Each structure stands twice: as C-alpha cells, then as structure tokens.
Amino acid sequence: MPGTFDLFTIGHSNLAADRFVDLVKGAGVTTIADVRSVPFSRWCPWFSRQALADGLARDGIAYLPLGDALGGRPRDPRLYRDGVADYEAMAMMPEFRAGLAQVREAMTRQRVCLMCAEREPLECHRCLLVARALAEQGIAPGHILNDGAVEPHAATERRLLALTGGGEDLFRDDATRLAEAYRRRARAIAARIKR
Fold this sequence. Notes:
Blueprint: E1 7-11, H1 17-26, E2 31-34, H2 49-58, E3 62-65, H3 67-70, E4 80-81, E5 84-85, H4 87-91, H5 94-107, E6 112-116, H6 125-136, E7 141-144, E8 150-152, H7 153-164, H8 174-189
Parallel strand pairs: 1-6, 1-7, 2-3, 2-6
Antiparallel strand pairs: 4-5, 7-8
Helix pairs in contact: 7-8
C-alpha cells in the first residue's frame, strides 16, 4: 500500500494518540505535515501542537507545521467571498504555493502525511484544497480513514461528484464537472467569518 501513494492525508478527529500513531505508521509515514491554521485541540489535547510534536518524536515521526501556508482559515479578509473562505483564491497565493513546495521537498526524503482535524476528507480543506492542488501537480494522495483503509484521491473525487450531483453530463467535460463539484463542496464546508 505505501508504494501506491506519493503522500497521505489524515484527520485526527477524536482518535486516541496510540491509534493515530498506529494508523500513520501502518502507512509508512515518517513525517506529519500539520495543515491546521490553529494547531490546538481543546477536546483532544494530545493533538495540540507541542504535545503532538513531542509524542510523534517519541515514535520516530517528524512534525512539520504548515498551517500558516496551507491552513484552511486565511487571515487575509480578501480571501473570503461572501464570508466563506475561497479555496480557489487561496490556491493562487504565493504563500500557498510555497507551502506546497515545502511538502514536495519533504517528500524527497520522507513519507509525508498531511494532517488536519476533520475525520472525513470531503469535509476538510486538506482534501478539497491541499490534496487537490498536489494531485493537479501529478502527486497521488491517499486518504487514511479511521478504520485504517486508505482511499485513493481519485476515489474521493468520485465520491465528491456523487455527493454534489456532478455526475454524468453530456454538455460539460469531466474537468469542468469536477471543478464545479470542488467549488460547491468547498462553499459548504469552508471556514466562515464570524459576523
């Protein structure tokens, strides 16, 4: 399985620390790239930045904080459209591109896994923004699910099309349908400005 994918993603959700480590080690992961804008968990404090970094180090896994560049809650108010984080605008930012370059560089030496909080890939920017951008660069992401299965990003995209009603369409090509499905799902789950 590890050879099938170029990198992985995982949502820590409310997993126990040892279960989380088992899942990522099972995939051969040697580096966790934390893409949370706010690397803190009130409910699962072992996933807060320092506790996580320390715990991973004890298990021989490196910690790479990338939330400033690849997080889903931009600080710049111009990256929100109608109060919702605009993933397409975020993907065009130099900081985001630099974050992707950091991931790619880390991949030359390590087995990288992007980590955020949400359990389901289709409810998280790690899939809808970051993994999408990496897949467009020819990288094959695999999403580690909480049961230990790894879902290929292409299968996740098929689920996305089904979820958003973007199935077969005689008048739109596959790329257009998929882009619209990403746009719809991102608008449904992306961070919102509190008013």
